[in-house]
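step 3/5: co-fold with protoporphyrin IX containing FE
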Amino acid sequence: MMGDSSIRYGFVSRFFHWLMALGFAWMLLTACARFIDKDAAFTKAVFQFHGQVGFTILWMGVLRILWALSQSKNRPEKNMLTTLGHMAMYALMVIVPIFAVLRMMGGGRAFTYWNTIPVLSASEEKTQWMVDLGNNFHGLLGWILFALIIGHILMTIKHRMAGGAEDVLPRMLGK
Ligand code: HEM
Ligand code: HEM
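step 4/5: write tokens
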């Protein structure tokens, strides 16, 4: 029930998948708002939680990858391309927020998680390569991750329409 099997994903995998899918919907909304107009009142209202939700995706992503590794032998079978697509999404779901955190560290900026847990304290010291890494790659890789996710959803729809054994959605719905 908790673990995966050759016919479906178990509760833990499904919990990570769908809860984090909500998180990614929020990240897409906030990134698009910023891309369209970074000074709009709506963007300011929603973007303040971009980093908070993004940091949640980071630590949950680490747990999800460890869980996926522990289940790799008993997951439903898939082809090479699908496996590569999933691996790319796993990698980017931690790399993208890590680059943002590195940029904050490099810029000497403080970060308090949900206004309660101090993660980074402010510092006078600046580390330019960390800031550059974040500036050059955080947004770019974030958009690439969103493109992969959209491709992933489209493939799920395509397989669903083909029906029968091709339909992989029930595996992730626990049926
Ligand atoms: C999986 C997690 C994340 C995703 C997918 C993501 C995605 C993105 C994307 C696509 C942009 C570009 C928006 C634009 O073009 O205007 C962006 C910008 C930004 N993100 Fe994130 N982000 C994530 C996590 C984080 C975290 C954890 C932080 C900070 C703690 C953060 C801070 C920022 C900031 C300050 C910007 C504006 C500057 C820039 O464009 O790089 N993000 N994010
Ligand atoms: C409406 C949205 C989504 C649908 C319908 C969907 C559907 C699915 C399905 C059917 C599978 C099983 C595929 C198989 O075993 O062949 C799967 C697995 C997977 N999906 Fe999604 N997905 C969605 C959103 C997302 C998002 C936002 C991400 C974020 C990166 C994501 C990442 C993954 C990954 C990494 C796997 C591999 C198994 C796991 O660890 O969960 N999916 N998805």
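step 5/5: annotate
The pocket of protoporphyrin IX containing FE (ligand 2) is lined by residues 13, 17, 21, 24, 68, 76, 78, 82, 86, 89-90, 93, 149, 152-153, 156, 168-169, 171-172 (CB under 6 Å).
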